[in-house]
Amino acid sequence: MDIKKELSENQTILLIMSSTDYNKEIVDVAKKLAGKSIAYVTLNKTRDSLIELFKKNKVKTDNIVFIDAISKTIKSTPEESEGVYYVSSPGALTEISLVISKFIRHNFDYLIFDSLTNLLVYESKAPVGKFVASLVNKIKESKTKAIFYALSVKEQEALIKESGMFVDKVIEL
Question: Which of 43, 62, 100, 171 has CB atoms 3.0–4.6 Å from 90's, for a disulfide?
Answer without folding.
Answer: 43
